[in-house]
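agent> Task received from the user: take the single chain below, predict its 3D structure, and emit structure tokens. No templates, no multimer pairing.
agent> Plan: (1) validate residues, (2) run structure prediction, (3) serialize to tokens, (4) report one or two observations.
agent> Step 1 OK, no nonstandard residues flagged.
tool_call: predict_structure(input=
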Amino acid sequence: DEKIYLTHNTQRNAKYATSGSEPININDPRSRLAKITSSKLSDRIYKVCKLINHYLAEKNWTPAQLSRFSTISKSTISRLTTFVFSKKAYCPTVDTLVAIAFALKLDSEKTKELIYTVYPRYRVYVMASENNWDIERINEELYNRGLPLLGQKHN
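)
tool_result: status=success, residues=155
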């Protein structure tokens, strides 16, 4: 099997993937690796925004009520309930998502959905834990899903 390693070329300020001896610029949108390593964070944040707003509507709550019951600041809740596309999308921590889930009294499946929407690699980690996978098998599954490999910077 071919192994791919990601490095950071500081002279050109671009990420490169090395497969064998040939560097591949992953910032080139035509590159398959660019698609794999692009975070699509804004897509995930948009989906979590829709989820949170759906759960708020189900409970007939306002974002201010969610802030009060989750102990998460109003500004953070606002960033999560009002999607604004930007180059640097706000990414909530797992703790923030868990606090929101508990405040909304979401069941286990909805809580996982909230976390996995923002952090899809966590689904793989749970599968790996349940199936006693080694790092190579975990990275294979992450790669197959187009997610960052262990040892690679995560968004």
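agent> Step 4: summary for the user.
Residues 1 and 82 are 44 Å apart (CA to CA).
agent> Done.
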